[in-house]
Structures
1.
Amino acid sequence: MLLRLQAIIFICSVVIWQSASVEQSSPRTGIEVAKFYGGLSPRSSSRDQIDKQNGDFRPLQFRFNYSSHINGWWCVKMYEGRGSWEDNYLCTNYDIGLSWSWTLQDVCMLSLKCVFTVEPSDAWWYDNALCLPSNSKIELVWSFCGPRENLSCIQLYDPSSPSYFHDNYLCWRQTK
Ligand SMILES: *[C@@H]1O[C@H](CO)[C@@H](O)[C@H](O)[C@H]1NC(C)=O
Ligand SMILES: *[C@@H]1O[C@H](CO)[C@@H](O)[C@H](O)[C@H]1NC(C)=O
C-alpha cells in the first residue's frame, strides 16, 4: 500500500516536473519591440521624432516581409508559433515604438495602445496584437477584410498562410 502510494507520488511529481520544463522551454512569450536592422545607422533614432513632427516629417511607411527583416528599417517579428508565422516581419521606415504582443497580459500595460490582429477563421490569432506607445500620434487600424477607405494600408501577405489571411491589412493614420 505504502509502496503504491509512493509510486503514485513519484509519477505525479514527474508529470508536474515535465510540464514545468515544457513551460520553461516554450520558445518565447510576451512582447517584442521593433528594433533597427542591419546596414546603415538609424537616421537619428527616435521614437520621439513622431511627437516632435510639425507636419513636415517624411511620411511613415510600413512594409511587410514574409521571410526576412528589412535592412535599414525598424522591424518586429510577428511571431506566432503555429503555421508559417515564425519568420514574418513588420517594419517601419523609422522608429515609432511599434511592438508585437502574442500573449494577452502585455496588451493591458497602461503605456500601450494596441490593436488585436484578429483573424476570425483562425482560432490561434485572438491574442495577437500590434501596439504603440499610448501617447503616439499614430493610430493603427486592423482589417481582416481588405483595406479601409481613406487610410494608408498594407497587406500582410504571407503566401504560405491559409487563404483567409490574404485579405488582412494593417492601416494607419497620423493625427496632428
Ligand atoms: C523580403 O526580404 C527578402 C530578403 O531581403 C527579399 O529578397 C524579398 O524581396 C523581400 N520580399 C518582400 C515581399 O519585400
Ligand atoms: C474618403 O474621402 C473622400 C474624399 O475626402 C470622402 O468624400 C469620403 O466620404 C471619405 N470616405 C470615408 C468612408 O470616410
2.
Amino acid sequence: MKGFEYLEKELDELKEQGLFRPLTELESEQSSKVVIDGKEVIQLSSNNYLGLTTHPRMRRAAMEAIEKYGAGTGSVRTIAGTFTIHEAFEKKLAEFKHTEAALVFQSGFTANVGVISSILTDKDVVISDELNHASIIDGIRLTKAARRIYKHADMDDLKKALEETQDYRTRLVVTDGVFSMDGDIAPLPEIVELCEKYNALVMVDDAHASGVLGRNGRGSVDHFDLNGRVHIQVGTLSKAIGVLGGYVAGDRVLIDYLIHRARPFLFSTSHPPAVTEACSAAIDVLLEEPELIEKLWDNTRFFKKGLNDMGFDTGKSETPVTPVIVGEGSLAMKLSDRLLELGVFAQGIGYPTVPADKSRVRTIVTATHSREELQQALDAFEKAGKELGII
Ligand SMILES: *Cc1c(COP(=O)(O)O)cnc(C)c1O
C-alpha cells in the first residue's frame, strides 16, 4: 500500500550497509543443535543456558497443566485470571529468591517496564547504567521521574550521580546483573554499599544471571551474598528457566503495590497454565539438578579459552555470554553467515544493539553442548576468522 515509502527508504539503507537481516527459522526444537534450512547446525545463539526448553520434567509439567486447566486463562490476573497455580508458583519463587514475595509478569520486558513506570513519580529520580537492557530504558521513558545515566559500571560516576540527586524523595539505582551483550557482571557489592550510604533503592535485572549465577542459579544477589540488601530483583523465566515470563522479587509492600499499579500486570492476560507449571518445574530442576549449572560453567570456560587462545576478542565477558567482537557491522554479519555455512549458528549483532564499531557475533554455550560440538564450533570459528582476516 502507498504511504510506507519512508520506511522502505530506511530499510534500503540497512540493505546497503549489509544490516538487513531476515528472521532465522528453526525447524526443530531449541536444543544444542537445531535445524535451519534443512541442515543441522550447532546452536550458539540461544539463551537456553541449561537446556530446560526441552527438559523432560518441563514437558511433562506443561502437558499435565494443559490436561488439567486447558490452554489459556481467559482473563488478566486482577479480574478473573489468577489460578491457584499462579499463586503457588510465586510463593515458590519468593522462597527460592529469599524474598518476602514475588510477582510474575508476562515477560522480563514487561516486568521492567511495569516496575520502573509505576513506583516512581516526578518527585523521584532513576539512576541507570548506560548499558542497561532496552526494557529498563523503556521503563525509564515511561516514568515521570527525573533520570540520570551513569557510565557503564563506573562507581565514581554513580557516586557523583548520588551526590547530585540528594534532594529527590526516592532514588532508584538500576543495573543489569549480567550485561546482555558483553557478559560482564555488575559490581553489585560496590553499588549496594554506595546506595546504603546515600540512602537509595537498588534494583537488579538478573535476566542473564538467573539460573547461571548464585547458589542453584539464584542470581547475582545471591552470588555476591547480598540477600536482604537489594530492594528489587527482576528476573526472566524466558532464558535459563526455558519458558516465558518475568518476575519481580522483593518485599511484600512492593509486590502489593505492583499488583495495584503496574500496568502490564493489570492490563494484559495472565500466563497460560502450561507456562506457569513448566516454570514451576524449572525451579525444582534448579534445586535438584545443580550439576546442570556446573556443566554450563565447564562448557563456558572451555569455549571461552578456545576463542581467546585463537586470538579472538571476547571483551570483558566473565559469564556464558561471550561476544566475539570484530568491529564493523557488516563484518560481524559476514562472520555469522560463514559460520552458518560451516554448521554453526551464531547471530551477528550490530548497531543499535551495540555501538557500530563494536559489532560482534554473540555466543552463549549451554549445559547441553557436548565437548565435540564445542570443539567443532571452535574449529569453525578458526576457519571463518582466518578467512575474514579477523585472527
Ligand atoms: C532478555 C532480557 C530481558 C527481557 O526478558 P524477556 O523475558 O525475554 O522479556 C530483560 N532484561 C534483560 C537484561 C534481558 O537480557
